[in-house]
Amino acid sequence: MRAKDPIKKICEFCGCEFEAYTQTARYCSHDCNRKAYRKMKRKEVISLTASMASLTKRERAKTALSEREYLNTSEAAAIMGVSRWTIYRNVVKGCIPAKRLSQRTTLIRKKDIEALFDVIEPYEVLTTGVRKPIDEWYTIDEVTEKYGLLRHRIRKIINAEGIPTKKAGTRTLIAKNRIDAYFRKRGFDTTLSNLADWITTPEVMEIYNMTEHGVRVFVSRYVIPKKRLNGKLYYSKQHIDKLKNVT
Predict the structure, then answer these.
(1) What burial class does residue 28 get, using C-beta atoms within 10 Å of its C-beta: 0-12 exposed, 13-18 middle, 19+ buried?
(2) Which stretches of the chain are DSSP H helices?
(3) Are 111 and 97 in contact (CB under 8 A)?
(4) 214-224, pLDDT tens digit by residue?
(5) CB atoms within 10 A of CB 105
(6) 3-state DSSP call for residue 226?
(7) From CA 24, how far away is CA 1, in angstroms rounded?
């Protein structure tokens, strides 16, 4: 769209100031526009030529490797399409025969690499270990009663943490060791139910002259035992007193 008043702009090619009547104007004249276009095309041709030359160089290198009888570890890795450390590991295991000529030079015969595929053994599936079977399970009601959380909150934790579950009729059972480990890591410990005093966040703020943010940071840093009852969160006063050196 043509502007009513001229707009002062700087030519992107020659750097001179000029008056433009459109927001998209970039050059002060057709001559600068033509020269800028030729310069851009020249750069594209140079870049394309350089990339083609690089590709040709890699192809020549591959051809040279295919004609050689002995390879170092880097060249063997390039031919097989793996890392140099993969070649080293297989040399150490004895899968690939190799000869160490010096501290930095190890040579591998090309025909030994090709001989790896002369006899194909059955593919071995690697396993990370056998998991222990889960023998003990909670129902959702037992978890809510033990930790004082609502059912929908328990379900969110199960989905987020990937805790194993199984169906027993119409009931959903939850792996006991996994759910206990989750809450233990976050400071919930039902074995401390015999502690005399449990206090809420407002009470901690009043007794120890702390802000709400300070309370949350403190109990998280020192993993103060806590429990939830009727929707309220309680902290162990005994543990806080010990850390605050209160007698």
Answers:
(1) buried
(2) 30-67, 73-80, 84-93, 110-115, 140-147, 151-161, 176-185, 201-208, 212-221, 237-244
(3) no
(4) 888 888 887 78
(5) 10
(6) strand
(7) 9
Q: Which two tokens stand for residue 7?
A: 């707009």
And the tokens for 126? 């690697």
Positions of the chain with pLDDT lower than 50, given as ranges: 195, 247
Tell me the two tokens of residue 66. 């295919």
Contact at 8 Å (CB) between 201 and 212? yes
DSSP-derived 3-state class of residue 179: helix
> What single DSSP character describes residue 190?
G
Which token pair is 104?
């930095």
How far, rounded to the nearest angstrom, does the alpha carbon of residue 216 sit from its chain's CA centroid?
28
pLDDT one-digit tens code per residue, 71-89: 888 888 888 888 888 888 8
* Distances from the Cα of 123 to the Cα of 92, 94, 119, 120, 126, angstroms: 21, 18, 12, 8, 9
Helix, strand or coil, per DSSP, at residue 138: strand
Spatial distance between the Cα atoms of 75 and 83, rounded to a whole number of angstroms:
10
